[in-house]
Design goal:
Blueprint (H helix, E strand, L loop, with lengths): L2 H10 L7 E4 L3 H15 L5 E4 L2 H9 L7 H4 L4 E5 L2 E2 L5 E2 L6 H8 L5 E6 L12 E5 L4 H9 L4 E4 L1 E2 L2 E2 L7 E6 L6 H9 L4 E4 L1 E2 L5 E5 L5 E5 L1
Parallel strand pairs: 1-2, 1-3, 3-6, 6-14
Antiparallel strand pairs: 4-5, 5-13, 7-11, 7-12, 8-11, 9-10, 14-15
Protein name: Ribose 5-phosphate isomerase
Keywords: Isomerase
Length: 222
């Protein structure tokens, strides 16, 4: 069992019968959805929403009930991965391209559990490029404004074309090297016209589960 799978299976222990559950996106959340599917097959009754089309498709294949957003209300728990997490539980997310949907879902959950392997546990954020979702209109102006914040910003590409989110937007990957003040940067980025949202998740995670190569599982609580 790989580290991501270990962390994911630990997190899924928090899901109880009758809960409303948010399903994250990415290579770590994949394992959580797989485990939830196993538990549903064994008789667990839940309702779920997904943060991406890929996660929704996976959930449906596993028999996890997906409920429309206008029918599910506030969620009990959401399980998702992260690209970086620091000791204050500030996250960098969006490597899978679903940061906006993740932020919407995770802002409407009572408990957000983040699952990572030890490579994502950092002292200072910024080694991983910060994803920023940008509307296509006049996007080059927005990209230039992002560069003015002190980063090297480039469009995320896929198959020779600009990567499109599930919302039809672009992702600019912004390389800062270090992010010393995430709170200040988040405000500055979201004030740029054309920016939909950014991959800094601040004061959102309630628990981070870190799987380490030595077999240890560390749990960091808010």
């Amino acid at each position: 069992m790989n580290l991501k799978q270990k962390a994911a299976e630990k997190a899924v222990e928090a899901i109880q019968d009758g809960m409303k559950v948010g399903l994250g996106t990415g290579s770590t959340a994949y394992w959580a959805i797989q485990k939830i599917g196993e538990r549903v097959a064994q008789g667990l009754h839940i309702q779920a929403v997904a943060t991406s089309q890929a996660s929704e498709d996976q959930a449906r294949e596993l028999g996890i009930p997906i409920i429309p957003f206008d029918q599910i209300g506030r969620l009990d728990v959401t399980i998702d991965g992260a690209d970086e997490v620091n000791e204050q539980l500030v996250l960098v997310k969006g490597g899978g391209g679903a940061l906006l949907r993740e932020k919407i879902v995770e802002s409407n959950t009572d408990r957000l559990i983040i699952i990572v392997d030890e490579s994502k546990d950092v002292k200072v954020l910024g080694a991983f490029p910060l994803p920023v979702e940008v509307v296509p209109f006049a996007s080059e102006w927005t990209l230039e404004a992002l560069r003015q914040t002190g980063c090297k910003a480039e469009w995320r590409m896929k198959d020779g074309e600009r990567f499109l989110t599930d919302n039809g937007n672009y992702i600019a990957d912004c390389r800062y090297g270090t992010i010393e003040n995430p709170q200040e940067l988040e405000i500055r980025l979201n004030q740029i016209p054309g920016v939909v949202d950014n991959g800094l998740f601040i004061n959102m995670a309630d628990q981070v589960i870190i799987a380490r190569a030595n077999g240890q599982i560390d749990v960091r609580n808010k």
